């Protein structure tokens, strides 16, 4: 009798699970990317002669290592409830609090075949989806000169509301608004003594059009900033726009991009402090030495930049060969008296060649080599990188 009751309960459970499965789907996914890498950064201008280098295990080169869950529930009439939570994974075994929880993405919302998708949570800005053309990795990534592209993950927006239109014959638009993390309380004072509020609000809009071999994308971001600049005035909102395009000639795919930043670079992954200090064993010491030697590392309130990207990819030997160049000019070479860095500033140039070879639909191996000059606009700060690795998706 007990066995009969147990069998009935199990059958009922399986039946219930079958009904739920028909209405709801949840997918476990992830990317594991790691390998060996070498990095060497040098600064040898004037009386300063500083070197920082490192070699060993490198995590998240072609893709940031991650795992996540995403799901959808069919609500009928083409409407679905959707969610996604995604966490960082460090295959090197370290990470600490910065890599805990679902810090990459976490959102929930509704999606309709006819009306598009609306989500709320921590999610990517518009530039991630609309940037067109082949791109490099690490030091060769376009986000080393562009702000707000989202290519390096620096432009995920907390507390944000996002709407994506359905695909309309190749055209798609994105609107995002982030409310920031502050509750509107006083965060600083103007030179006249009056207080000012700054909620850190973020606006991000973008659009893309794809048709056969042609791809075009455009994005605009505006981020209000906390605090005051060096003169004591409240900081102006930072803004960034990027226009990108690509064309696939079959034998080679060409990608071009141009953009401008004002009053800072939103979500920038290219500062000298971030690249050197974040990836090289002796990096923190080098960043401190640069500051001690009089090399500025922070952008001023009057900052302006013009950014360029050229990327080429081609199928070679069963894999994909990439070559790219990124370049950025700025007004940081203005005189120190005018708020610039003077002779301490230079224009950024980065170059990269990489090759990715798929072993299967989910697993591939890669190699890359990069060179950068005037990294983070710090004149005569140079860097080289090279490495090999494996990338597995599940």
TrEMBL record:
Cross-referenced SUPFAM superfamilies: Porins
Keyword Transport tagged: yes
UniProt entry keywords in alphabetical sequence: Cell outer membrane, Ion transport, Membrane, Porin, Signal, Transmembrane, Transmembrane beta strand, Transport
Signal sequence segment: 1-22
Pfam family, one: Porin_4
Top-rank lineage group of the source organism: Bacteria
Any one biological process term the GO annotation gives: monoatomic ion transport
Cellular-component GO terms for this entry: cell outer membrane; pore complex
Domain annotation Porin: ranges: 7-374
Gene Ontology terms for molecular function: porin activity
Subunit record text: Homotrimer.
Name of the protein: Porin
Species of provenance: Castellaniella ginsengisoli
């Amino acid at each position: 009798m007990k066995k009969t009751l147990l069998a009935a309960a199990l059958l009922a459970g399986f039946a219930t699970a079958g009904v739920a499965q028909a209405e709801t789907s949840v997918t476990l996914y992830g990317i594991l990317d790691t390998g060996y890498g070498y990095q060497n950064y040098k600064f040898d201008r004037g009386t300063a002669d500083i070197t920082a280098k490192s070699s060993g295990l490198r995590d998240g080169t072609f893709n940031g290592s991650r795992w996540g869950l995403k799901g959808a529930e069919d609500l009928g009439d083409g409407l679905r409830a959707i969610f996604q939570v995604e966490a960082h994974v460090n295959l090197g075994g370290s990470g600490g609090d910065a890599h805990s929880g679902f810090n990459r993405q976490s959102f929930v919302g509704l999606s309709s075949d006819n009306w598009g998708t609306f989500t709320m949570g921590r999610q990517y800005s518009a530039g991630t989806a609309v940037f067109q053309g082949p791109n490099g990795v690490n030091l060769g990534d376009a986000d080393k000169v562009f702000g707000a592209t989202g290519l390096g993950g620096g432009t995920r927006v907390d507390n944000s509301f996002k709407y994506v239109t359905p695909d309309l014959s190749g055209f798609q638009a994105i609107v995002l608004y982030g409310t920031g993390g502050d509750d509107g309380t006083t965060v600083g004072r103007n030179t006249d003594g009056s207080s000012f509020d700054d909620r850190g609000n973020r606006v991000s809009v973008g659009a893309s059009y794809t048709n056969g071999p042609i791809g075009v994308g455009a994005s605009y971001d505006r981020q209000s900033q906390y605090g005051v600049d060096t003169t004591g005035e409240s900081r102006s909102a930072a803004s960034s726009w990027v226009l990108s395009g690509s064309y696939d000639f079959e034998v080679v795919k060409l990608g071009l991009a141009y953009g401008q930043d004002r009053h800072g670079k939103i979500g920038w992954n290219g500062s000298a402090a971030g690249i050197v200090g974040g990836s090289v064993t002796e990096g923190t010491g080098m960043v401190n030495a640069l500051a001690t030697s009089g090399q500025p590392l922070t952008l001023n309130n009057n900052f302006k930049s013009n950014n360029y990207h050229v990327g080429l990819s081609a199928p070679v030997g069963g894999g994909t060969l990439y070559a790219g160049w990124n370049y950025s000019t700025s007004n940081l070479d203005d005189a120190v008296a005018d708020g610039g860095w003077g002779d301490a500033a230079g224009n950024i140039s980065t170059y990269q060649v990489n090759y990715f070879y798929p072993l299967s639909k989910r697993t591939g191996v890669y190699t890359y080599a990069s060179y950068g000059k005037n990294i983070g606009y710090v004149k005569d700060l140079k860097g080289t990188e090279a490495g090999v690795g494996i990338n597995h998706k599940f």
